[in-house]
């Protein structure tokens, strides 16, 4: 291993030096000469007909440059959706228009009615208050089941109904699944809600549009997880700007969690207005705006049924889910409750027959899209809750019931279209029982009872599909994009490397972990490798970071490009040492001729590539720079087993998390410290969903949780010290690093563990509570205890 | 935030005259007012900052043993300096977070009278006296429903005088998001009886639970109020808890305050 950290070293994060010293370069730090500011006038009603937006008086206010309304975007494209789902009858989903600024109707609180560009933010806000607008409020649809009723108000008048799609998976299995339920010895049924969440990255969204009149070049600086994708979506579908005239830059980004994947109207607006006004135009979201304009997450209402035979083997699974799309289709929204959810319903279990029905519904709420885990937490939650409930109904140990039904042979083709390459679910469960000291639980329960507290233990297993994704497969499933990743490795004459990756880091530590991989391959110090990302003018087309894909897909592209570099460098080394290329070996940063003491250093070869005096110019070009695109052949399947121990205060219903243990199998690991950090963060967010967070709307579509006064984010004292372990490793079989991805696991694996633990605690106290919908706030737990 | 003028008087007298200006608004630590201004929910023409008035800061004990806290004293200073009244110091030390405690003041909190704030329960539960720029107001006469007090326009809380009880405790059950009191109960045992003040719970703001006071005056023990209950119908009901839940918490927090009183 190189001395400052190759694969497997817990190298400290080099990017933290600039973040912790306040030297990060975030989008809001970018201020361009002559920059103007935009404020969006947003709807305060959930559903309404726009009769009039009179901007005349406001336009004359001090500092106002121009006020834009929906009429200014007639003939301009709308915000596109990147995934088309085909329903169970073979019809494509209903796909409404999504104008940059509202046209004719507003459809959720926060929908932008007008955009005021002025010399200062304050002037823009003043002018917004002077806009005279008249909106006829219409009845709103908020509840999904109400939205599907005959005669319900329609979010989009030009659509047939509020049903986006009715998806069945696998439709051909439906009959067999129903038959298995008829034959079942036991059926466990559970109705549950997967609560709507607001992602709340620490950095709110920001966009700065710029236009160079002399060249016709557009630049957008934006807080995105995937700047190349924004360039393609906005350029091709909204504004009609060819990619070679549009540069998108996403510099340091302060957290994404999915909500910064999507293309947003504000980005298109700033780019559009910069040209219209010939001035850079900047928008920085306030936190209040973020609550009503960032895509939300989750929001599923599900009925799940599990069939078991007389020996407690799972024989069939059937689910019926309503998934909230909100008022418009956000970029990848349709894929989340379908292909990122239905395909995971087998979980870790060999259930032979599965049928998943999902109805996606339009409502007068903020659009809903991917949030850390995206579909997979929803799948895991319902599956692991129903298994836990079944274990209680049957009076069997929940761990034993899981173990009995574990998949044990790999590769394993599930009845929901995916093939798990590797895994060892008994190994992670064994590890969990060890690190969580589960055998000591009963003693801890007694100690809690002695203090007047109810203690519960909740177990959860998860499987997720990461490293998205094989392009040809997702294309068949409706993706309007490829999901490869790219890397260009540029070796400088003096031997240092610059890697331009299509992956984007917004907290993941790529600048530290990626060099570790290259350092390992070449045998040089990781400090010789620099990572560049987040600028479409640097490096090839990339697809960005989400779905725990950066190392599995982006890292694989980097490995492929580095292999090309090494192959070429060997040719140069062979020439320099007058040896056969086949005899050249690379070790510890030096090329040697096998069986001899001849060697040349890495730096001698890289110098020769750029100063090709003694060089095989007849065979190869000078220079040392290679690009690779990597398209995975399958998803990766991280898995794990989690245990949560809670105490419930029977007098108040307050839940505290006393212990949390996680045994994950992420395949090979590059930087264990960063992996632990990812798991910690994911569990923290999962605990947030389980105990604290809930986005609530009232029946008129007013956002009731519009600030941190009412939206409860997890804080440091809400979570315990975690015990995490990643030593169970079944490497991925189909990517060159054998890695699986770790970014979402914690958020997927923790909510069911917490809820299972609370139910266990309440039952131990003699309370006949079988389910409580998240978040398990004190008031909900107390209400459940009252029966 | 809309534009405003600001004055920073250094004496109470100057502050009072500055507040005589039409549309002037007193600014204490700004923990409620500044966010309100940022949201453009208030538009005072002039702010009169009280933070530069040194005579309104600090803690002292009077000859009769009462603890006096200047109206401009921040929560962190009360937490550190009100050792003579441990329950009060403990309450101050658990308001908000360190930033709030180092900016927010006792006078600002009382003048605002947020129904979920902590201080009103201590003041009412201690039978404290609120001393203003022109009079003294008994705690029982001061609080007048949500965000409403007996203060007149331009009147400044310069000091709060707390009789120190034999025993007291404040027990707060936090609202999960804001961490304001979903229900907070302040119990104080004096030689002449027990006072119980409840914040966070009622639609009418901070209130005294007189039934509990009577029972605890007879027997200062948690079991003395075992059979008592509060009606949930007048209680706040919102996303974080129903009226019935809050009413239930009033009984739980009162029992815990009695048990913890020292």
TrEMBL record, chain A:
Where the record annotates domain Aldehyde oxidase/xanthine dehydrogenase a/b hammerhead, the positions are 21-139
Highest lineage ranks of the organism? Bacteria, Pseudomonadati, Pseudomonadota, Alphaproteobacteria, Rhodobacterales
Q: Which residues form a coiled coil?
A: none
Origin species, per record, is: Roseovarius marisflavi
UniProt superkingdom: Bacteria
Record has Oxidoreductase as a keyword: yes
Indicate whether Oxidoreductase appears among the record's keywords: yes
Q: Which Pfam families match?
A: Ald_Xan_dh_C (PF01315), MoCoBD_1 (PF02738), MoCoBD_2 (PF20256)
| Key words, A-Z | Molybdenum, Oxidoreductase
Q: Name one GO molecular function term.
A: iron ion binding
Protein name per UniProt: Xanthine dehydrogenase, molybdenum binding subunit apoprotein
TrEMBL record, chain B:
Which SMART domains does this UniProt record tie to the protein? CO_deh_flav_C
Organism lineage string: Bacteria, Pseudomonadati, Pseudomonadota, Alphaproteobacteria, Rhodobacterales
State the name under which the record lists this protein.
Carbon-monoxide dehydrogenase medium subunit
In this chain the FAD-binding PCMH-type domain maps to 1-167
The UniProt entry, under Pfam families, shows:
FAD_binding_5 (PF00941)
Q: Which domain of life is it from?
A: Bacteria
Q: Which residues form a coiled coil?
A: none
Query: Which GO molecular function annotations are given, in alphabetical order?
Result: FAD binding; oxidoreductase activity
Q: Which InterPro entries match?
A: CO_DH_flav_C (IPR005107), CO_DH_flav_C_dom_sf (IPR036683), Diverse_Substr_Oxidored (IPR051312), FAD-bd_PCMH (IPR016166), FAD-bd_PCMH-like_sf (IPR036318), FAD-bd_PCMH_sub1 (IPR016167), FAD-bd_PCMH_sub2 (IPR016169), Mopterin_DH_FAD-bd (IPR002346)
In the UniProt record, does the keyword Transferase occur?
no
Keywords, sorted A to Z: FAD, Flavoprotein, Oxidoreductase
